Amino acid sequence: MEASMKKICLLGFVAALVIAGLGEVNGAGECGKANPDMEAFKLAPCASAAQDEQASVSGSCCAAVKKLGQNPRCLCAVMLSNTAKSSGVKPEIAMTIPKRCNIVDRPVGYQCGAYTLP
C-alpha cells in the first residue's frame, strides 16, 4: 500500500512538472530561449551610459548592444527588464545607446514600449 502511494505521489509530481512546462514555449520569447533579465547582465558595461546621456559609451558596451541589437525585440526586452530597472537604467536614456555607439544598422524608429529608438 505504501509503495503504491509513493507511485501515485511520484506520478502526481511528474504530471505537475509536465503541466507547468506546457505554459512555457522554449524559443518563443523576445530573446529566444534566453531570459531578458539574464541577458541584461551582458549590458553591464553600459550601466553609466544607461543612466546619464552625457556619460561616455565604452567599446565593450557598444559591442554588447550591437550583438543584442541584431534582434530589436530582445534588445528592447533587455532594456525594459526588471534587472535593468533595478540597476538604475533609465529606459529613455538606454534607448539612445545604439545611436551614441554609431551603430549604422540600428533599428531606427523601433517602438520599444513607450519609447522609440532614435
Automatic annotation (TrEMBL):
Domain Bifunctional inhibitor/plant lipid transfer protein/seed storage helical: 40-108
Keyword vocabulary terms for this entry: Signal
CDD domains with a match to the protein in the record: AAI_LTSS
InterPro entries linked to this entry: Bifun_inhib/LTP/seed_sf, Bifunc_inhib/LTP/seed_store, DIR1-like
Signal peptide: 1-27
Biological processes per GO annotation: systemic acquired resistance
GO MF annotations, alphabetized: fatty acid binding
Domain of life, source organism: Eukaryota
Presence of keyword Signal: yes
SUPFAM superfamilies: Bifunctional inhibitor/lipid-transfer protein/seed storage 2S albumin (SSF47699)
Record-annotated membrane-spanning stretches: none
Record keyword Ubl conjugation present: no
Coiled coil: none
PANTHER family: LIPID BINDING PROTEIN-RELATED, OS04G0415800 PROTEIN
Name of the molecule in the record: Bifunctional inhibitor/plant lipid transfer protein/seed storage helical domain-containing protein
